[in-house]
Fold this sequence. Notes:
Elements: E1 4-8, H1 16-25, E2 28-29, E3 35-37, H2 44-48, H3 56-71, E4 77-81, H4 90-100, E5 106-112, H5 115-129, H6 136-143, H7 155-162, E6 166-170, H8 181-190, E7 196-197, H9 209-224, H10 229-244, H11 258-280, H12 284-294, H13 311-330, H14 334-342, H15 356-376
Parallel strand pairs: 1-4, 1-5, 3-4, 5-6
Antiparallel strand pairs: 2-7
Helix pairs in contact: 5-9, 6-11, 9-13, 10-15, 11-12, 13-15, 14-15
Amino acid sequence: MIQDLLIHTGDPKTGTSSIQSVLNTGAWRCSAAHLVPQKHLNNAPLANALKANADPAFVEAQFGSLRDWFACHDSGTGVISTEFLARRSPHRLQEVLESYFPGLPTRTISYVRPHASRALSAYGQRLKTGTFDGSLQEFCRFITTVPTLYYAKRFPAWRTVFGGGMILRPFVRSALRDGDAVSDFFYHALGTGNFELLPVELVNEALSVAELSGMRLVQQVLRRQELADHHRLALGGALQRSLSAQSGRCGKKPVLDQASASHLLEAFREDARAMDRQFFGHPILEEELQRSRDSTSHTRQDFSPEAHFLPHQRTRLDEAATRIGTLIRKMPKAWRQEYQVSVSQRDPSDIADSSPAHRKNAKNVWNLLDEITAILAQPNTG
């Protein structure tokens, strides 16, 4: 059995995809300490098992299989990683851990991204997955009305539950080891700086304004077809991974306008101060929030598809997305199962139906995603 457990809870948009890629591919070397990562890239189902209404059988399936996996190793630190734990109760997590890993020493590690930077990144994520379709200015007003970025109401609960085993790091380059979240994570996970990180494929690079505007159009079509949220989430993730693999990409990255940054500063200043007092001992989050306002753009960026894609390109995007929606509605599990396997969220043996019809359906979806990627990577071309 493993000797102890480290749980990486995110937050979202704090280098989690890169950390998980290194863990999943074993892309590190260390002679002084040993890590035993979870089997899958991102253990989202484990976070779902912590929902208040989770079926006990589902909880057993997730935590029981994890217990069995870690029991196969006679040493090392077990590592669980999913940013979706940020949405769960640390009290519930501790309760379940005591049932499945009684007496096992446990630490948690989380990264907190400065408020304005996180809001901007979250807007891009919401456009990519089709869960928000308004302007950046509208999103910045919306994000101040929900709990997501009120960190001081959330992180202290993790300290209450896990005490000194709760590690919280600011997602600020100057504060991270080697200016990098992956290096910082492995330093804390291994307990030593004597390790080497190997190159891994970039899978979650930030998208440009033009690329996001195209994704916005695609998601508008998928929503119009009433495609379920989990399908649109997976399709957005697949398109981002595909775009990240394209060479020669260019385009301006999203930036805050002055009015939006000022609104975020006013809304989150007290939260930043509270976090700095409780966790960091100096005004790192407050300074980042102020800096975001001082370095804004005076002009608003246009995320409308019409601003970045020609009429015939928009027509092709619409047609390809419509066909994807038709294919997925016909066989809801075919492509999504293949996608989950491709990103190590499930094992190939878990696919219940791999009939020729399902494989053909999934292949057609992949081909259409390639067609969409080619258009998104070359906006405003003839």
